Amino acid sequence: MKMKVLEVIRQGEIGGGESHVIDLVRCLRSHEDVEPVVLAFTDGPMITLLRGEGFKCHVIPTGRAFDVKAMMAVRRLIKSEGISLVHAHGSRAVTNIMLVCRRLGIPYIYTVHGWSFHEGQSSLIFKLRQLSERWLCSSARRVICVSTSNFATGRNAFGLDAGSTTVIENGINLKRFNADGTYPDVRSELSLGTDDFVVAFICRITAQKGPMDYVRAIEQASQSCPQLRGLMVGEGDMAAEVDAYIDTHGLADVIIRQPFRSDVPALLAAADVFCLPSLWEGLSIAMLEAMAMRRPIVVTMTDGARDVIVDGQNALVVPPQHPAELAKAFLKYSNDRDLCCRMGAAAHALVQQRFDAQRVADRVHEIYQSCV
Q1: Residues in the chain with pLDDT < 70?
Q2: Furthest-apart CA pair in the chain: how many Å?
Q3: How far apart are the first and last CA of the chain?
Q4: Which strands, in side-by-side order, build the sheet including 255-258?
Q5: pLDDT at site 180
Q6: Is residue 280 left, alpha or beta, with left meaning phi > 0 and alpha meaning psi from -120 to 50?
Q7: Contact of 199 with 218, CB cutoff 8 Å
Q8: Per residue in 46-80, is it b (16+ CB within 10 Å) or e — as a string?
Q9: What is the pLDDT of residue 15?
Q10: Burial class of residue 344 (count of CB atoms within 10 Å of its CB; 0-12, 13-18, 19+)
Q11: Which phi and psi angles does 15 have, rounded to 5°?
C-alpha cells in the first residue's frame, strides 16, 4: 500500500519554495511506495501545472496563520485522502497543519526554506518569531534545513535540535536548466540588442528579495554604461511600488518589466548576469538555477549563499541594501567579459556536482520511510 504524503505550502504562485515542491513531487515518482498529494492555501500556476501533470492538488484559501476554518478543512482533507504523513514547506504552511496533525496523531515534517525571523524586524517581532519557530520545530517529527548555514541560524537563535534536524541542500532540475540547451530567442522578443548587457532579476517582487535595491542599482549603473539593461520578471506585493518608480524616473527603456513567466531557462539564457540582492534566504532556488545556466551572478551573503558562494571565485558578493555596491558589481561584469565567463563556469561546475533535484527527493524519501 502506498504511503500518502500531503505536501503543504503557503501559496500556489511559483517562487523558490514552490519550485522546490514541484521538483520534489515529480522526482518522488521514481519511488513507487509514495503518493504525494499537494495542498496550497492560495490557487496559482503551481496548482495548474501539477494538476496538468496528473498530481492530486487541493486549495484551501487563507492568508492567515492558525486559521481555525482552514485547519478544520485540513482535518477533513487528511481524513478523506487517507494521509499518513504531512510535509510542510515554510512556517506559514506549518501553522495551519501542526495542531491538526497533533490531534490526529499524524507526524509532520517541517522544511525550513528561510526562517521567519530576520534582520530589519522590530526586536519584539524578532523575538516572537524566534519563539514561534522553536515551537513549530519542537512538534515536528523531523526538521529539514535546506543549507548548513540555515541550520546554524536556527541552532544559534533558539537551540534547534541537531538530533531531530537533517540538512538537505536544495536541488534543481538539471535537465531543464541546461546551459548547453537550445531556448527560444527572448532577447529578440523583448527587443534587446546584441550589444545590450542584460542584468536579470527573476523572482518574487517582495521585500525579502530587495527589488528596489536592484532597480536603483540598474538606474545608477546605466548612467555609466548606456548599453546596460535590466530584465525584471515576477510579481508580488511590491510590484506596484517598483512599477511606479520605473515610471516616475523614466526607466521604462532601461528596465524591461515582465509579469510571472514559466520559461525561466530561456530568460536566464537571454541574460548576461543574474542578480539576487535578498535580505534573507534558506538556499535560493533562483540562484542555483542561474548558476546551472552558467550565468555570472551578483548576490548578498544570506543563509545558503554562505555554503555555496566564494566572493570573486563563483560570484560577486555585495552587502544587502546597498544599491551603489550592486551598481559597481554590474559595471565590473560589463567591463570584463572574461570575468563573466570565469564566474559562470565556476558556478556551473559547482551546481552540477551538488544540486540535483533527484538527490533531494531520494533523501526526503528516506525520511518519509523513517517517519511512518
Answers
A1: none
A2: 64
A3: 13
A4: 255-258, 228-233, 197-202, 273-276, 297-299, 316-317
A5: 97
A6: beta
A7: yes
A8: bbebbeeeebebbbbebeeeebeebbebbbebbee
A9: 86
A10: buried
A11: -130, -160
Q: Which helix (H) or strand (E) holds 197?
A: strand 197-202
Determine contact, residues 330/298, Cβ cutoff 8 Å.
yes
- Classify residue 356 by its DSSP letter: B
**What residues are paired with 109 via a beta bridge?**
87, 142
The predicted-structure confidence for 18-41, as pLDDT tens digits, reads as follows 999 999 999 999 999 999 999 999
What Å distances lie between residue 297 and 127, 195, 224, 260, CA to CA? 33, 19, 20, 21
**Predicted local distance difference test score (pLDDT) of residue 75:** 98
Q: Where are the alpha helices (DSSP H) in 293-336?
A: 305-308, 323-334
DSSP letters for 209-251? G-HHHHHHHHHHHHHH-TTEEEEEE--STTHHHHHHHHHHTT-
In degrees, to the nearest 5, what angle opens at C-alpha 28 toward C-alphas 24 and 32?
170
Rounded Cα distance, 22 and 202, in Å: 18
What is the spatial distance between Cα 343 and Cα 329, in angstroms, rounded to a whole number?
A: 13
Single-letter residue type at 207:
A
- Give the pLDDT score at 119: 81
- How many alpha carbons fall within 13 Å on the CB side of residue 10? 17
pLDDT of residue 14: 87
Q: 56 in the Ramachandran plot: left (φ > 0), alpha (ψ -120 to 50) or beta?
A: beta
Instruction: Give me 43's grid cell.
Output: 490557487
- Cβ neighbours of residue 278 closer than 8 Å, sequence gap 6 or more: 208, 209, 210, 284, 299, 300, 302, 320
Produce one character per residue of 360-370: b if its CB has 16 or more CB atoms within 10 Å, e if not. Answer: bbbebbebbee
Is the entire prediction scored with pTM above 0.90? yes
CA distance 355 to 285: 10
**Separation in Å, CA 229 to CA 12, 199, 246:** 30, 6, 13
Torsion sign across C-alpha atoms 222, 225, 227, 232: negative
**What is the DSSP secondary structure assignment for residue 2, as one 8-state letter?**
P
How far is Cα 343 from Cα 294, in angstroms, rounded to an integer?
A: 8
Which amino acid type is present at position 281? E
